[in-house]
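Subject: sequence -> structure tokens, single chain

Hey, anyone have a minute? Need the predicted structure for the following. Not urgent.
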Amino acid sequence: MELGKDIFPKDAIARAKELYNEIGSIGAYSHSQGIAYIRKQVANFIKGMHTTWRGRFACLTCFATERDGYPSDFNHIFLSAGASAGVDLLVDVLISSPNSGILIPIPQYPLYTATLARHNGIPIPYYLDETSHGWTTNVDEVERAIQKALSENIETKALVIINPGNPTGGVLTLDEQKALVKLCGKYNIVLIADEVYQANIHTRDTHTFTSFKKVVRMLDSHVPLVSFHSISKGVTGECGRRGGYFEVANVLDETIALLYKMVSVSLCMPVSGQIGVDCMVRPPKPGDESYALWKQAYGDDGHPTRRAPRYVLRTFPRRVVPLPQAAPPARGSQGRPGRRTHAGRVLCARVVG
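Reply:
Had a minute. Here:
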């Protein structure tokens, strides 16, 4: 660190010294649940004063350090090798019999279907609605899926909500979130909140992210909740470092102890990924030497993908987009005929403002 004092910003060096004093070598094992000091920083990020994504760049900085306005216990936070590892662990715990199932949205990215298949769980699909206001989760449709599962003797263990959505890009309203929490309470199922895209809202003038942790606390609900976040998305975008976390709420101590035993089998997540989580929940702030560079990298309005167009293309299951004429044909290897071009199966590409 002394060698880098004239190379790196002073606040970056100070952070490195701070973490070194807490961690020691990044080449050694850490606590299996994650470095306690970093879990405490995550808890500080989750609690604090609630700030929305509306407004200009300064608002992003507020959000990155202060989110919900409700307490968070670092003992209920698990650092993981990306959100995917946490999802895999949770599904493993929930699928306890051959007739155990989990509600998953359609369309969705394939993490949940693949993980359920791996653990012999039953996917219970519910279909998202495309409205004039964008994609949303219809509570009646979710309840229909629950009732159908009951009629087929499938035990519904949990409801997966991806908010903001992937691949739809939809952002739930507060009323929709409240209704979903109440539905989970009605059927006594776990709420799995996949919130890894919380920093990827491109229409912050009209859409606001609210965590399900905040909604559960607002309602004084006892619904078991597991919330996920990751350094793979948002302003961090360090997907290869494999860093993320999940927080459990309204979960029995015995269950938390079981989760700890299970993560202990893998000893610990990559320490470099844990440091990435610390950087995500504690970004540079005004007055830090590196703040100007950080602001320059992510744009004056804090947009995490400022080099991309303002609109984001997503794939949807309703309309087929023809392949442009200039696209090359699919080719096989070693002179053999190629398979049909993937573009023939390209689903809808819609512009999300």
